[in-house]
Amino acid sequence: MPSKTTDPAATPDLPAFLTGDDLALLNAGTHPSPFTVLGPHKSGNRRWIVTFQPNAASVTATVAGKDTALTRLSGDVFAAPVPGKDYTLTMQYGDGATHTTEDPFAFPPLLTDFDKYLLGEGTHKQLWRVLGAHVTTYEKSRGTHFAVWAPNAKRVSVVGEFNAWDGRRHPMRPAGETGVWEIFLPGVGDGALYKYEITGADGQIALKADPVGFGAQHPPEKASIVRDITGYGWHDAEWMESRAKANNRASPISIYEVHLGSWRRRYDDGGRPLSYKELARDLVDYVAHMGFTHIELLPVSEFPFDGSWGYQPVGLYAPTIRFGPPHEFRDLVDAAHAKGIGVLLDWVPGHFPTDPHGLARFDGTALYEHADPREGFHQDWNTLIYNYGRTEVKNYLTANALYWMEEYHLDGLRVDAVASMLYRDYSRAEGEWVPNRDGGRENYEAIAFLQEMNKEVYGADPSVMTVAEESTSFPQVSGAVHNGGLGFGYKWNMGWMNDTLRYMEKDPIYRQHDHHLMTFPIDWAFTENFILPISHDEVVHGKGSMLEKMPGTEWEKFANLRAYYAYMWTQPGKKLLFMGCEFAQPEEWNHDRELNWHAAEQPMHGGLRELVRDLNRLYRETPALHVKDCEAEGFRWIANDPSQSTMAYARFGAEGDAPVVVICNFTPVERLDYRVGVPTGGFWEEALNTDSNAYGGGNRGNLGGRDASDTAHDGFDHSVTLTLPPLSVIVLTARGSG
After folding, report:
1. Of these residues, 346, 363, 469, 538, which one is catalytic?
2. How far is the C-alpha of 702 from the C-alpha of 714, rounded, in Å?
3. How large is the angle between the packed helices 391-408 and 326-338, nearest 10 degrees?
4. Which end of the chain is more exposed for a tag (fewer CB within 10 A), N or C?
5. Is this structure's pTM higher than 0.70?
6. pLDDT at 736
7. What per-residue confidence (pLDDT) applies to 5?
8. Do residues 432 and 542 both lie within one domain?
9. Around Cβ 673, how many Cβ atoms within 10 Å?
């Protein structure tokens, strides 16, 4: 093995484009522009090849079948003139091993001028098609093109097993003035591990995961994985054609919220969660059986800490590897669509974690986040806040929303923690926040981002839905952007949830004093397109399970919960229920364990689950219960009696739809001969009674229904007389007219 020459003066025959300083910088891995000296370059009338090959004993270039030995110039830099530009390099090592490859520095830039223009503008709506790691064929060579935005970096390299994680080997080239760095690595394919080694503006070297990577290692490992996400064969054309109706506000929307890691586990295999492919069978079949119209997944974008439930993502473009690779996540979505079930993703543009391999100080500067912690740090969650006013960051997030819809056929996004984005003083004391340009608390930049995201998402495909988890009275969250709204399709009704749960948690003897908690929410029920949510947040952190919230004996707890769910399903608004709540899991949700399916098989729990299934069926099949969920014309109070904790209301659909009457009794007292007005004469069928023994009740009912009398009552010309079982809800549907 020849000795390594370290003195550039010992190599006088350098090509004109290469200097001794270049050699020193290449060996140190600090050359500011390695593509200007590495690879093929002309010097005079000769074409030279220059390559940096650490640990190589010798290097040979093969051009058209002819071998040319390269000379070691200095350190690990080899060069020689060769008779052509199409060549391969063969390295021989001291242990006798050899490696042949094409030279990455022989390939011209791959990004087009148009891509660079959009990147520079921060308006590339298909950002994932140009950034990240793409398996592709380029100039007849199969490999992977890498591109990453790091405008303030001094140097960016791709490192991986393919180059011994040595950042000197594959430094990237800047793509004009875009701040993007790129390189094509021949021979690197699907499944390769990689990171970006970034010498930041501060001179510090950091290893970063790919912000637009399509795959990642299972935590605690931190590398990105090259994933070829092209070529999936979807089978959901029929669903995609019908999706607009399924997501329409006049349609029944009943959402089953799921944390994939704890829905079910395989205890014959170390307690592992189900894979995407197993969920495509088991979860989808269960949701279809239960009659839910949509599944909402807690965040699946790659995240480092299981205990965050996905709400602290580091890989917004990578479905978590915990349950399988990207194509298998598509299998789950495809299977749901085959059963007519939509899939929503919990999406987190409100914050990101400080993990050093993530976005924090990505290029040695506050790139994705604000530099000022009063704007860029969430005190509640110890996370960072995106700089929504930076066009490239806004582009990154907006393109991500589009990515999930286009590449994974998701049917909508539920946007987490919108309130934290809208207000600069969110959870901050005086002096801990920076006012907007007008001295106020509204975050104009975040508002503009949310508006643009919704415009782009609905503009790309109006059949999808976006949903805001927004806990304040910010106006027009689901209002049109052109009217000053944020542009969401729906908003979670957090006020309804808080008020009604406060009521249900009270001993029935005291409910008469807080009757307004159940009736007042209707006053704002039509100011937005609302979803009524009983989400994971209600069954964690010491809040107890839904069953534990209910007062009374065991029987009364179940009766209360049955009545509450029936009240929820018959109130205006779409529905959302967290997994396990459908069978009244006795314990709080624990993300480290599967749901208590043993409890689900017990009679009272099973009865409640059967009620939820019947509520979904009734909701789907009864237009009056869903067509005007978001319109005041679809609801009318009939009666309210705080002293008895009873209420009655009517629901109406479109013209010609039979009305529905709902009567609620929130005390443990049975009420006989209860008269209630009804909108029409004829027979009123008891379509649902939560006291049915099928659900675990006492089977006190009304013989299937009642004929309306001509006795005027509650402002109607007709009325019926009923038995109201204790802690129950009765639903009557009109089966005649008069």
Report:
1. 469
2. 20
3. 60
4. N
5. yes
6. 56
7. 40
8. yes
9. 8
